[in-house]
Specification:
Chain lengths: 454, 367
C-alpha cells in the first residue's frame, strides 16, 4: 500500500533540487492515510518543521495524483520502520503537575507508593515467584487475603533478610485493599511504629498515635525483630495487638527470626504472635532461583540465555535481593556493551562479587561441616549408629549432598560408606518431610548451608 | 537591512556560528550560510546543520530591519581581518556590502526563504535548569570523555541527562567506561534525554568568558543551551540509555587514595612502553610494600615499573587501558584521587578524593 509514498517522492523529486530532496525527504515515510488524515513520519523535530514548511503543498498535490484523499496532514517524529518512536526522552515540568493528579514517576524502578497505607503497589502476588522455599507461606498468605482476621490471624512470617518477606506481606496488603477498598490498611516497619509512639509522647499529642493505629482493619508490621530493647513500644504493640486480635482484625508480622529468639520479648506476646502458626521463607534452592530469574526476565521483556540464568543462580548464594541485583547488573552490562548476557559472563565481566563458586564445596566439606554442626566427629556421624541425633546428622548430610551438589543417591551412598542407595533415598525424604513441619530443622539446615559456603 | 556593529563583537559572534555552518555534512548549499536577521533593533546570526542550530544575539549600535543569508566562513574570515572599529553591513537584494573605514567588500548572498526554519521551543512546557557556568563546564568536560564514537549504537554517542532522587545527573559511556556527574541537587522536575556529545562539545567551545550562568531547557523534542548572547538548540538522540546505575559498584574490596599528579606521571611513563599492546598497563596493589605498582607489559621496547606509596591492606591486580586512565585523570579536579578495585575483572572506580559528585568507571582488560 505504501508504494504510494515512492510515487509521491518521485514526483516531488522532479520538482525540487537534488540536495533539498536528499536533505529533507529521503528519511520520510507514510504512516497512514485513514479517512483522509494523512500521517507522515519524519526523523526529528527539525525535519518536522522544515518538511512541513517546504513540502506540505507538494506532498498534498502528489498524494492526490495518486488517488488519495487529503483532508489534513500531520508530520510525526518516527523511525523509518513506521514505528512512532518510543519517546527517547521524557520530560515532566513542574508546571505540568496538577495538584490533584499525582505525578507518575518516569523512572521505572521508582515504586508507586500510596502514602496513607504505606503500601507499594508494585509488590503483588503476580510478580512474586512461588518456589519450594516459600510455597507454604504464599498459600497461607492467600488464605489471609480471603479471610482477613480469620483463622490465619495473626500471620507471622519469618526468614532471612532479602528473601522476599516484605514483598509477600505488601502483596497481602495490596490484594486485601483491592478486594475490600473500604478496609483501613497500614504497613509500617516496626521502627516507624516506635517513632510514632515516641512522637505522640514528645509532642504531647498521643491522640495522633491512636488516630493512626486505633481504627485499623489490617496492620502489617515489618522487621519486628528490631523491637529488641524498646520495652515501652513492646508494651504498646502488645496492647494494640490484643485489641486487634480480639476484635478479629488482621495482624501481619514479619521478622528475621522466631519470636522466642528475639531477646527479652514478653513471653505472652511471643506465644500469641505464633498461635496461628509461624510461616517461613527459606533461601531459594537452585531451581527456585532459576524460576525467579526467568520470571523476572519475562516480566522485563529481557532476552537472557538459560545458561546465563543458571550461572547467576549458581553463583549467588545469599538471598533474593542479591540475586536480583546480580541479574540487573548483568543485564545492564549486556545492554551497554550490546552483547548478550551470556557473552558478558563468558568475557569474565560482571562476576557476582558476593559469591564463592558452587564448585568450591566438596562432599568432604559438607560431611565435616555437618558433623561439626551436630557436635560430633565425621567418623561418628558416618558410623552405623542408630542413636537418634547421629542418625539425624547423617540424614541431614545426605540431604545436603543431594541438594547442594546434586549427587545421585548411589554416589551419596558411596560418599558416606553405605552399600544401599535406598537408605539414602529414605534418609533424604525423611528430612524433606521433617523440614515442612519442623522450623528448627529448617533453620539448622539453613545455617549449615551458610557454613558450607563460607 | 543595515547594521552597525563593533568589529570585535562581530568577529566573536561569527567565529561561534560559522563552526556549525561549515561543519555541515549535508549537501544542501544553504547550510553553509549564516542567516543575518535584523528586527526592531535586535540582530541575530543563525546557522544550522539540521541536527543543531546556533543563534547569536548580536549587540549593535544601530540597525534597520531586514534579513539575508551569506556564506558564513567567508564573512567570518573577512570580518576577522578588518581593523578594530565599527563595521557596517548593508543589503541590497541578495547582495551584501561589508565596509569598515577604507575596506569594503561585496558578497553574493542568498534569500532567506530557503534557509531551514528552526523548530520553536515550547518554553512553557520545557523543563528549565540553571547552573553556574564553571560547574557546567567542569561537569560536561568530565562526562563527555566517556561517550562513544560508534555510530552503530547512537544512544551511546550522547550525554544522558537524567534525574534521580531529586538531582540532575549527566552520564556517558562507550561500553568500556562510564562517567557520571551530579550537576544539580534538589531538582523538582524530571528529565531523561540523550543529547549528542557533538552538541555538548559545541556548547563548551561557544561559552565566552564573561558568561556566568548556563540555562538548559529540555522540551519534548529538543534541548536548548543558553549562555549569554548565544543559544544552541539541538535534536535529541533517539533510543534509551542503558540502566547504567546498576553497574557502579557500591563497595569496593580495596580502596586507596593517591596524589593525582604522581599517578598521572607514572601512567604516562608506563604508557610509553605499552604502545605495542594497545596501551594496556598493569596496576597492582601490594599490602607488604604499602604501594601501588604501575607497570607495562614487557615487550620489544623494554619494560617499566613505577611505585607509588599508598595505604592498602590487600593485594590486587588489574590490567587497564592507559588512555582511559589518562583521560579520567586529566578531568579530575582534586589533587587526591580515590581508586576502588573489586577483583581483576570487576569495574574500577575512580573518583575525586574530596567529593563523590563525579564517578568514573573503567572496565579492566583481561590480563
Amino acid at each position: 500500500m505504501f508504494d504510494v509514498w515512492k510515487n509521491v517522492l518521485e514526483e516531488i523529486k522532479k520538482e525540487t533540487s537534488r540536495e533539498k530532496f536528499t536533505t529533507f525527504l529521503q528519511k520520510t515515510n507514510l504512516i497512514s492515510t485513514d479517512d483522509g488524515e494523512i500521517k507522515i513520519g519524519v526523523p526529528n523535530v527539525f525535519m518536522q518543521t522544515n518538511v512541513r514548511k517546504n513540502f506540505d503543498k507538494n506532498i498534498r498535490e502528489a498524494l492526490k495524483h495518486n488517488g488519495i484523499t487529503v483532508y489534513s496532514t500531520e508530520y510525526i517524529i518516527s523511525d523509518t520502520n513506521n514505528n512512532i518512536r518510543k519517546r527517547a526522552r521524557e520530560v515532566v515540568s513542574i508546571n505540568d503537575i496538577k495538584p490533584n493528579k499525582p505525578k507518575k514517576p518516569l523512572i521505572s524502578n521508582t515504586p508507586t507508593k500510596k502514602p496513607e497505607t504505606g503500601l507499594v503497589t508494585d509488590y503483588t502476588f503476580d510478580n512474586f515467584v512461588i518456589g519450594t522455599n516459600n510455597d507454604l507461606a504464599v498459600y497461607t498468605a492467600k488464605a489471609v487475603v480471603d479471610d482477613p482476621g480469620g483463622k490465619r490471624n495473626p500471620f507471622f512470617l519469618y526468614g532471612k533478610s532479602g528473601v522476599g518477606k516484605t514483598h509477600l506481606v505488601q502483596a497481602i496488603g495490596n490484594a486485601i485493599a483491592k478486594k475490600n477498598p473500604n478496609l483501613k490498611i497500614l504497613y509500617v516497619p516496626i521502627n516507624r511504629f516506635y517513632a510514632d509512639y515516641i512522637d505522640g509522647i514528645k509532642t504531647k499529642h498521643p491522640e495522633n498515635f491512636d488516630k493512626k493505629y486505633g481504627s485499623l482493619d489490617v496492620l502489617i508490621v515489618d522487621d519486628f525483630q528490631m523491637i529488641i530493647g524498646k520495652e515501652k513500644s513492646q508494651e504498646e504493640f502488645f496492647k494494640l495487638f490484643n485489641e486487634m486480635y480480639l476484635s478479629k482484625r488482621q495482624v501481619i508480622v514479619t521478622s528475621d527470626r522466631l519470636p522466642d529468639e528475639i531477646q527479652d520479648l514478653d513471653v505472652r506476646l511471643s506465644s500469641r504472635l505464633t498461635q496461628a502458626g509461624a510461616y517461613d521463607i527459606q533461601l531459594p534452592t537452585f531451581e527456585d532461583k532459576c524460576a525467579i530469574l526467568q520470571a523476572k526476565a519475562e516480566y522485563d521483556g529481557v532476552e537472557i540465555e538459560r545458561e546465563a540464568i543458571e550461572y547467576i543462580a549458581d553463583n549467588v548464594k545469599t538471598n533474593v535481593r542479591d540475586l536480583n541485583a546480580e541479574y540487573e547488573k548483568l543485564v545492564a552490562f549486556s545492554e551497554l556493551r550490546g552483547v548478550t548476557p551470556l557473552e558478558i559472563i563468558n568475557s569474565g565481566y560482571a562476576r557476582p562479587a558476593t559469591s564463592s563458586s558452587r564448585n568450591s564445596t566438596t562432599p568432604k566439606k559438607i560431611l565435616d561441616k555437618t558433623a561439626k554442626f551436630y557436635e560430633m566427629d565425621t567418623k561418628t556421624m558416618l558410623s552405623r549408629s542408630r542413636v537418634a541425633n547421629i542418625c539425624m546428622a547423617r540424614q541431614v548430610a545426605m540431604y545436603l549432598l543431594q541438594n547442594e551438589l546434586g549427587l545421585s543417591t548411589t554416589k551419596i551412598a558411596r560418599e558416606i560408606g553405605m552399600k544401599d542407595h535406598t537408605t539414602v533415598m529414605n534418609g533424604t525424604k525423611k528430612i524433606e518431610k521433617e523440614m515442612r513441619m519442623n522450623f528448627k530443622l529448617r533453620e539448622d539446615i539453613n545455617l549449615l548451608r551458610e557454613e558450607i559456603y563460607e | 537591512m543595515e547594521i552597525n556593529v563593533d568589529q570585535n563583537k562581530l568577529t566573536k559572534a561569527l567565529s561561534v556560528v560559522s563552526k556549525v555552518a561549515t561543519s555541515s555534512k549535508t549537501t544542501l548549499p544553504i547550510l553553509s550560510n549564516v542567516l543575518i536577521k535584523a528586527k526592531k533593533n535586535k540582530v541575530t546570526l543563525t546557522t544550522t546543520n539540521l541536527d543543531m542550530a546556533v543563534v547569536d544575539f548580536l549587540p549593535t549600535s544601530s540597525s534597520k530591519d531586514g534579513e539575508i543569508t551569506v556564506p558564513a566562513r567567508l564573512l567570518a574570515d573577512f570580518v576577522a581581518n578588518l581593523p578594530k572599529g565599527e563595521v557596517k553591513i548593508s543589503v541590497n537584494g541578495t547582495k551584501i556590502t561589508v565596509s569598515s573605514g577604507k575596506y569594503k567588500s561585496m558578497m553574493n548572498g542568498a534569500s532567506t526563504e530557503d534557509f531551514p526554519e528552526l523548530p520553536e521551543l515550547n518554553e512553557k512546557k520545557a523543563v528549565i535548569f540553571k547552573m553556574p557556568v564553571e560547574d557546567f563546564k567542569n561537569g560536561m568536560s568530565a562526562v563527555k570523555i566517556a561517550a562513544s564514537n560508534d555510530t552503530t549504537r547512537p544512544e551511546l554517542t550522547g550525554v544522558f541527562f537524567n534525574t534521580n532522587e531529586e538531582a540532575l545527573y549527566a552520564a556517558a559511556s562507550d561500553g568500556y567506561r562510564l562517567a557520571e556527574k551530579k550537576l544539580i541537587s534538589n531538582v523538582k522536575s524530571e528529565v531523561k534525554a540523550i543529547v549528542p556529545a557533538s552538541t555538548i562539545a559545541e556548547v563548551l567551545s561557544s561559552i565566552s568568558e564573561d558568561v556566568e550562568e548556563v540555562e538548559i531547557l529540555f522540551d519534548e523534542s529538543q534541548v536548548c543551551f543558553r549562555m549569554g548572547e548565544i543559544e544552541i538548540t539541538s535534536n535529541y538522540i533517539d533510543g534509551s540509555f542503558p540502566p547504567y546505575r546498576r553497574m557502579i559498584p557500591e563497595n569496593n574490596e580495596i580502596e586507596f587514595t593517591l596524589d593525582k599528579n604522581e599517578i598521572l606521571r607514572v601512567t604516562k611513563l608506563a604508557a610509553l612502553f605499552a604502545k605495542e599492546v594497545g596501551g594496556s598497563i598493569i596496576l597492582e596493589t601490594s599490602a607488604e610494600k604499602g604501594a601501588l605498582l604501575v607497570s607495562s607489559v614487557a615487550n620489544e621496547f623494554g619494560e617499566n615499573v613505577s611505585e607509588i606509596e599508598v595505604e592498602v591492606d590487600k593485594n590486587a591486580k588489574v590490567v587497564i587501558n592507559s588512555r582511559y586512565l589518562l583521560d579520567v585523570l586529566n578531568v579530575l579536579e582534586s589533587d587526591e584521587v580515590k581508586f576502588g578495585f573489586s577483583g581483576s575483572l570487576q569495574p574500577i572506580k575512580i573518583e575525586n578524593a574530596d567529593n563523590q559528585d563525579y564517578t568514573h568507571i573503567v572496565m579492566p582488560l583481561k590480563g
